[in-house]
Amino acid sequence: MRRGVLFVVSVAMLGLLVGCATGPGWDAPRPAPAALGTPAPGFAPATPPAAPESTHSPAPGSWAGVSAPSGYRVVLLTVGDDAPTRTLVDAVEAWAADTGADLEVVHADDDMIDGAVRAMELNPDLIVSAGDALVDPLATVTANHLDRQFLIVGAELAEPTENVTAVDWTGAAYRGEGLGTPAAYDPASFTPARAASAVRAGVAAVLTGLRGVVLWID
Q1: What is the DSSP letter of 67?
Q2: Are strands 214-216 and 164-168 parallel, antiparallel or unpaired?
Q3: What are the structural domains of the chain?
Q4: N or C: which end of the chain has fewer CB within 10 A?
């Protein structure tokens, strides 16, 4: 009888260990998942295609018909606890819950470069950045990891590579690299509605190949 009990306990423990090993983990990078749906006219420039590092203003709501497939792997890389950052974090988490994306969160307050590396080591389909302080560290990291896709919401890199997409608006647009905070910066512009639109527009851009640009959603 004791052997039977021990066997059951051992099997249960093994199941827990296996679950911990394979639960939230993503074993390796994979080919980019396809978007569900297509954007409406006006989402991307017609001709010529958007040039790298350019700024494009998509038609309002033109991204609404695009969604990530269920199980889309996203890491939310975040730093800081100011009101704009909290609003962006809430928007990403709400979007993930709504679409069925598989979301992991990496808080990088202690070491932002290390946080970015930890985010990449999780092998996500997309890393979403929330928090102005991440701009300069990401300028260093993203240029050396062109195989990884990044989305920055509420800020942008001064010189993004083709794997970095950003979504900005009047009142945001922090660019780092000693350029300082824009004169038009306004924390009140980080509303839940605008943050939600920024996340959805940015993900739609990454999924449909409109990458390496800044989407302006005013």
Answers
A1: B
A2: parallel
A3: 55-216 (3.40.50.2300)
A4: N
